[in-house]
Amino acid sequence: GVTGYIGAGRADQARELVQGSGSPMGRVLAAALDVADHDRETLETVIVHQTDEEVRDLSRYLQALATVGNIAPLLGLLGTVLGMIKAFMVIQEMGGKVNSAVLAGGIWEAMMTTALGLAVALPAMVAHGYLVGRVDRFEAQLQDGAVRFIAALGRRS
After folding, report:
1. CA atoms of 92 and 98, how far apart (whole Å)
2. CA dist., res. 11 & res. 36, Å (int)
3. What whole-number percentage of the chain has pLDDT above 90?
4. What 3-state DSSP class applies to 98?
5. Which pTM value belongs to this model?
6. Contacts from 87-95 at CB under 8 Å and sequence distance 24+?
7. Cα separation of 119 and 111, whole Å?
8. Using CA atoms, how far apart are residues 146 and 49, in angstroms rounded to an integer?
9. In sequence order, which residues have a C-beta less than 8 Å from that of residue 59 and are 6 or more positions away?
10. How many angstroms separate the CA atoms of 144 and 98, rounded?
11. How sure is the predictor about 88, in pLDDT bands with cuts at 50, 70 and 90?
């Protein structure tokens, strides 16, 4: 792999390997190879910057998913309130003589919007939690790969 090529002093083969991969790890290591001859601080800065960029790219839709998960119950609550307002308006229009069938329409609307809001929010929040965990694990893998790369640079012939 890349660390083997680096350890053996074969930076050109390492560069070909990482540039051909098209993966986030490949892009991090390609950026690191570009500054491999600089001081360690520069190398680490470039690796941290590129890793952050890759994590940002992987996380780009997570905020939207979280927003959907957070707003859906509020929209359901809004529908509940509007449905109950409708039910009370019917009671007022009928002069207090409640027709349960007409009243049920407003209550049904209220309960349906609550259910729909929760039906959207629950899977969105589960998916968000799962994807955040995946991004976190991937970030740890990128950092681990970068540490192994730096160690291989220190061992090169």
Report:
1. 9
2. 9
3. 52
4. coil
5. 0.77
6. none
7. 12
8. 12
9. 132, 135
10. 68
11. confident
